Automatic annotation (TrEMBL), chains A, B:
GO terms for cellular component: cytosol; nucleus. This is Glycerol-3-phosphate dehydrogenase [NAD(+)]. GO terms for molecular function: glycerol-3-phosphate dehydrogenase (NAD+) activity; NAD binding; protein homodimerization activity. The keyword Nucleotide-binding does not apply. It comes from the Eukaryota.
Length: 396, 396
């Protein structure tokens, strides 16, 4: 993989991870004037999905990974004819009060660090070695922090045959990745690097609320009907309703771009404007998210944004809660820079929204079409170029 | 007009008006098994719109009527080649501290009762006599409380020739009207009774915020391109962006049905569920609003709901603010009946959401398809039949 790779992710970060990277190496002068358009569904012939019972592996044990693993493990028990009961969860080994973390999780059936006080099913087994986690697995849930994805992929690629032929992946890692002038999703990256068809899962899914069994919905974009069937069985539950769509790219991009709109929503709150203005900003933001994805990705359905949990529902949750909204409100009220607000409120971590806004703007400017995305452009200019926040809503 | 007419409206009500009526006389046994479907655009040949400058009349001077009149009067000055500068506003005469209300408004250029402290343009003239208001008017804005609409229409019908031939109307009265087994919109009622093409205006438009010039958007459903052009000129302003669509019925219905979804949103808040669940409820509610309107009305475009201010934006505003949401939260937390909550919090006025939920349910039940609208059905059963609120999100 290229070293000129950078990422913007919306996956929940934990304090000890590296700050989210921007698309800092985005190099519009690299010579590619007609960037590749990622295609959906996948462009290589996939091996057939193995028959018989499926074995589920979960790579990533942060709050979102553990919540998804909980649901998958419960469903493995619910559908014993379709799944092996044991579901393996990759946990990076470390010592906790003199004990191995995997032992603690497997004994207490809790992941106290990332999902406090939520009991996990006993058939969910924390496993320290990545190759043990994916051994014989036919359905693999990728939910690492995006910073670790390349390392994980390299590890999985090191020994040929590590991934079961015909296995399927799903990415619950939100965000997009830029290499030179190309934008691609993590689902397409996984698909390309591991040679497995990769679906994308996204929705209005705050991890703790999901783990507590509060009713919610999610969307899975799947490259084939067969993939849709398997992922529906892995995840759908009475309190976690799954809708599958064909639009893998739309599901992936909605999760990345919503954070730019959440900054705009926070600015509206900071300006003390009312509900009319905020609702207008969400509506315009959803349009720009849709249009951007349609313009730069293949196989995109506008309905993914207007009708699905990954689109409108996740946007609403993010614009009424969440730290992008909150920091943008503080940005307007305090007059401080985002850098300072990040240092003060986020312990130095970088906001996903500002990183995405910056790189989307650079990307659009290089293509000469930033003016077709006036809200994205204004959020960038207010955040980084000193445009007064009150200009946000003028001339939209 | 039939005495078996009842209404559900979402127009702002003032304390001295009658409580909002439910569809109390909805009589499914009236014999009509195949109800009329209102058509859009209009089904009669309209007289041509008069040429030359247009004269604007506004019928209704509550907060929303006054806010719209302010915008129209400002635009009349902004486009002197298209409009007569004087815009007449119908104000029911009464005495205020020994003075005529119309004199007070015309002297102070404020409507202190309904739009306190908002200066009105001097070319907006409060006029007590309805026939004087519409005399020579070619564009007529109907924004009365729905309870008075029939009286207003009768008064306008009394003397033939009161309405200028070829005049156009727009209804900013939200809600639907039921006669027997038929549902119709106020726009179609006005169109039928006055013989004028009638557009419909709706959006995320809290009146006071609009009048204060806070940025917002609105949607106008227009039966022809000519109507769209004239209404765009009457209303579009830098802080009040108008989008015109062909879907008159979708614009009308979105404003009525959103209040049922707002009850569900308030119940979620009352149950202390989080952002995931609330966003899921909004998404499902928007789907049911769209499907209901598609099923029972002609000319409906799903995009009116998913893309327009009248749809998604107004729904968001209503589900995060507004009294339907608030009273439903209180309903769940207190365990009291809506009747009691209305008495306590609304001074006896009836909520629009509960009235609409009740009648929509009766309507759907009679047609044997309530099960296709599970959210509408649950809101009704929780509100009126003792279903526990926690059942709201089960099995959706």
């Amino acid at each position: 993989m290229s070293s000129a790779t950078s990422r913007v992710s919306t996956a929940p970060s934990s304090p000890d991870l590296h700050p989210v990277l921007g698309f800092s190496q985005l190099n519009m002068a690299s010579g590619a004037t007609t960037p590749e358009r990622p295609s959906s569904p996948i462009s290589f012939p996939a091996s057939p999905l193995p028959s018989g019972k499926h074995k589920i592996a979960v790579i990533g044990s942060g709050s979102w990974g553990t919540a998804l693993a909980k649901i998958a493990a419960e469903n493995a028990l619910r559908h014993p004819s379709r799944f092996h009961s044991e579901v393996r969860l990759w946990v990076r080994e470390r010592q906790v009060n003199g004990k191995k973390l995997t032992d603690v999780i497997n004994k207490t059936h809790m992941n106290q660090r990332y999902l406090p006080d939520v009991p996990l099913p006993e058939n969910l087994v924390a496993t320290p070695k990545l190759t043990d986690v994916v051994k014989d697995a036919t359905v693999i849930i990728m939910v690492t922090p995006h910073q670790f994805l390349h390392t994980v992929i390299s590890e999985l690629q090191r020994v040929p045959g590590t991934i079961t032929p015909g296995a399927r992946c799903v990415s619950a890692i939100k965000g997009v990745e830029v290499e030179g002038t190309n934008i691609s999703t993590f689902a397409s990256l996984i698909e390309k690097e591991l040679g497995t068809p990769c679906s994308a899962l996204s929705g209005a899914n705050i991890a703790l609320e999901v783990a507590q069994g509060q009713f919610c919905e999610t969307t899975i974009g799947c490259p084939s009907a067969e993939d849709a069937k398997i992922w529906h069985a892995v995840f759908d539950a009475p309190s976690f309703r799954v809708n599958t769509v064909e639009d893998v790219n739309g599901v992936s991009l909605s999760g990345a771009l919503k954070n730019v709109v959440a900054l705009a929503a926070g600015m509206v709150d900071g300006l003390r404007l009312g509900g009319n203005t905020k609702a207008a900003i969400l509506r315009i933001g959803l349009q720009e998210m849709t249009n951007f994805t349609l313009e730069f990705f293949d196989g995109v359905q506008p309905g993914t944004f207007s009708n699905e949990s990954a689109g409108i529902a996740d946007l609403i949750t993010t614009c009424y809660g969440g730290r992008n909204r909150k920091c943008a409100e503080e940005f307007v009220k305090s007059g401080h820079s985002f850098e300072e607000i990040e240092r003060r409120l986020l312990n130095g971590q970088k906001l996903q929204g500002t990183a995405t806004a910056e790189e989307v703007n650079r990307f659009l400017t290089a293509r000469g079409c930033a003016d077709r995305y006036p809200l994205f452009e204004k959020v960038f200019k207010i955040s980084f170029e000193g445009l007064p926040p009150a200009e946000l809503v003028k001339g939209l």
